[in-house]
Design a protein that fits this description.
CATH superfamily: Nucleoid-associated protein YbaB-like domain
Main location: cytoplasm
Family: Belongs to the YbaB/EbfC family.
Number of helices: 2
Subcellular location: Cytoplasm, Nucleoid
CATH class: Alpha Beta
Radius of gyration: 20 Å
Strand order of the largest sheet: 1-2-3
Helix content: 40-55%
Number of domains: 1
CATH topology: Ybab, Chain: A
Order of helices and strands: HEEEH
Function: Binds to DNA and alters its conformation. May be involved in regulation of gene expression, nucleoid organization and DNA protection.
Subunit structure: Homodimer.
Length: 112
């Protein structure tokens, strides 16, 4: 028979660890670049854009479309990179908490 009290204790432990991990998502940061480093963006695990750096030589008004494209490319790369870091961090938090169930991956719980 299932140990309901033990299972409830594990659920409470997991909830506390998940809340702690969610709070730490802002501390997980990655930077990506495009245009050979001419545009750099930094994002955090909450998928917030923290900064954009643009090399001054790109700030010619006639190059505005190219700069926009480079910003989008760098931001998309950074957002893709942060997903891996968040999943890795979440898998550390949930390791050993739940049985391995195919298709049930708590590492993706904060990826929206």
């Amino acid at each position: 028979m299932l140990d309901m009290m033990g299972m409830m204790g594990k659920v409470k432990d997991m909830q506390a660890k998940m809340l702690e991990a969610q709070e730490k998502l802002g501390d997980i940061v990655t930077e990506a670049e495009s245009g050979g480093g001419m545009v750099k963006v930094t994002v955090n695990g909450k998928k917030e854009l923290l900064s954009i750096e643009i090399e001054p030589e790109l700030l010619n008004p006639s190059d505005a479309k190219m700069v926009q494209d480079l910003i989008v490319a760098a931001a998309n790369k950074a957002l893709a990179d942060i997903d891996g870091k968040v999943k890795n961090e979440m898998s550390k938090v949930t390791e050993g908490m739940m049985p391995k169930i195919p298709g049930f991956d708590l590492g993706n719980i904060f990826n929206k």
